[in-house]
Each structure stands twice: as structure tokens, then as C-alpha cells.
Amino acid sequence: MKRFWKKGFVWILVFLVVASAVAVVRAATITETEWENAITDPGIELIAGTNATLNVTILTSSGDPFALSSYTNADQLEVTAKFIDEYGNALDMDGDGTADIYTLTNTSTPGLWTGIITLGNVTPGEYTLKIEALAKNSTTNTIVDNATMQLSVWIAGGPYWVSVADIKDGDTVEIGSLSFTIRGLSELGAILDLGNLSTKTITDDDRDGIFSWQYDVTGDGANDWIVFTKSDDDSDRYIMMVYSSDANLLDNFNLESDFEVRESDGRVKFTNKVFKDLNNYKAYVVWDESFWAKFGIKAVDYYIIPLKGREHWTEGWGNVERTDIKVIKRVTYLGGLFGSEEEVYSGNIFNKNVNIDDLITVFGKWTGNAARISSGVWEIRKGLGDITIPNSYSLKERDLKALSVSSEDWRGFNPITKPSGRGFFKPNLDWKSILGLEDDEESS
User: What pTM did the predictor assign?
Assistant: First the structure.
């Protein structure tokens, strides 16, 4: 019995050793991916109709570069990439009816592999890219080492795109010569009423929350993409994105500034007000026109100021991430002898109704974007929004530089030109920083 126990113990020990050895078997690893001719900030975005270069660094299960010289039991190495569906099947990415598998080749640097990812005019949206590395023994027909990685990739429909917020059922959209009214807008799709009893039905066939239509918006002979997606703010609003390879896309929208007086409360809504146009930024002064303000007794003015710099105007992987402003409330008494100032809002306004003191609303509505491939980023070239104010206020539009030196846009004193203040009213905010004047001084 004792001998049997010892023999059993030995077999258990052998089993544990073998199990342990199996448990610590390691696979090869893909340690790094780098892209060329692609958007990489904040995530990976490729542009339909273009080629991007994918560079992959791979290590063997032993931590050596993924190269034949690192193996004694493999005589074939294979590295591929493919866009896959939910079942892992490769997708057709160039429209020829055949699934596309991209082959990567090893470079002169051991472990570094590179390949060209070619895209046709595929539907914009989120895709999954699977990268796989295999080390094979052709004699035994076995895989001796392998590595896989899956990446989420957004494919944009062109290097130029416009994003329009607050799209609702019944809205009429005008882009160049194209005009349509949206009917039956829902998560399933929409019917676009083109007029003259002509309609176009678009549906979300793959249930990814995105539905689209190809149409030559700019009239250059090439199809563009009109894409709808549900807003992520739990509202009934949708966002419309229009992609094109034509740089004239941004000029095909009717963006004339207008205003309307609302019958319900007499408030005045100003539409399509420009906050950013390339490197030009527009501020808006909401000027108190009340009886008390006109006689210098008490005035409450607001300064809506777009923030300068790319970090405040960013695209966020298939959507608009930031269009930042600050709103400063300035209260003055007795013509500015007494007063106070405070920041009442700072942050993004795109697709967001920003309510200021239940008096003013600011809504970021439209952005025009262009790809800066060499830098790996999108540039928001133009940003517009709507401003709604009480009828006891007026709205002044000013360039940031002009606002910083004017006298008629400030009660009592201009805090930039007279930082010491007036009377008992001393500025407590860094107005130079708010208006981006420090950046101008550094660049001059």
C-alpha cells in the first residue's frame, strides 16, 4: 500500500509538471503598429479611395524578432491583415466582389513588417482590422508560433467632410444643387424626399446605427457620401455627415447668417454665426439694452468667446469631439465704477444646447473638416452655431483682436487695455489668455 501511494504520488507530480509546462507556453506578440498616410489622432482613421501603409513590429514567443533566423523549427513566415465581419470573415474593401487579404512583407529590420492597405469607395463607418502572424513548419504542416491583434478603424468617406448637428425629421437640407426633405427619420433609416414625387430610401442594413447614401454632391463627377447617425445625447436628434474628395465641399452649403424672432417668447435666434474660419475667430457680445443699462445704473453683459488652438477644435474618431468656447458674465454698476466678472461656461458646444443663466443658449451646429494626412490629424477649418438671446439684448460680432482693443464693447473700461481697472472695479480674469492674445505674442 505504501509503495502504491508513492507510485501514485510520482504520477501526480509528473502530471502537474506537464500541466505547468503547457500553461506557460507563450505565443508571439504584435508589440506595435504604425500607420502612414492615415489619421492617427485620436484613433486610427483611414480614408476611402486611398492607400495607407501599415507597419507592424512582431516578437516571437521567445521575445526575439519575428524572423526566420529566430526559429529552428519553422521555415515559413506569414503576416496578413484583413477587415472582418462579426463572424471573422474577410470583407471586400475595393468593390471587386472578392474578400481582401493584405500581405505584409518583412523589412530589412528584423521583426518589422510592412504592407499597403488599399481601400475602394467603401461605406464610411467603424470596421475591425485583424492582423495575424504565423510561423509554419512546411514538413509537418504545423503552426509553431502565432500572433493576432484586432484594431478598431474608422473609415472616412473622403478627405473633406462636413458635420451638421440637430438633424430632425421634416428638416430640409440643401447642399449645392441637391435639396431634400427628411421623412420618417428613425434608427432604421429615412426617406429622403427629393421633390417632383422622387424619393430615396436609405436603411441601416447592418444595424450599426449608421445609414448612408452615395450622391455627387459637389458636381465633380465622383460620388460623395451622405451619412446619418443617431446623436449620443439621448435626444431625438441626428447628426448628418457629408464626405467628399472635393475640397469645394465646404463651399456647397448655404451658411448665410440669419435671425428670427420667436413668437412664443419674443426671443431672438441668430443662426449660422461663425465662431471659427481657419485662423480667424469671432466673439459675440450679448449687450444689455435694458432701461437700467442704458442709464448706467446696472448692466449685465455676456462675452461668448471661441477658444483658439487645435486642442479646442478637434475631431474625435468619426465625430466632432470639441468646439470649445468660454462665456464670461460681466456685471457693472454706475457706468463701470463698480462691477464683477465671472466665467459662467467653458467647454464644448457642438450638438449641445448650452444654457447660460436661463437667458442665452448657444448651440454648435456645423463644422467643416479637412484631413491633414502629413500630421495624422483632422483640421476643423470652420465652425458655426446658433445663439438665442432675449429681446432686451443686442448681439455684437467681433474679431478677437478687434474686441481686445475696442472701447465701445466694454462698459467702464477695456480690461485688456486697462488691466488696472476703474474705480472699485478691478479685473480678476486673465483676458489675454481667454482671447488667445498670448499665443499671438509668442508667434509674432
Answer: 0.88
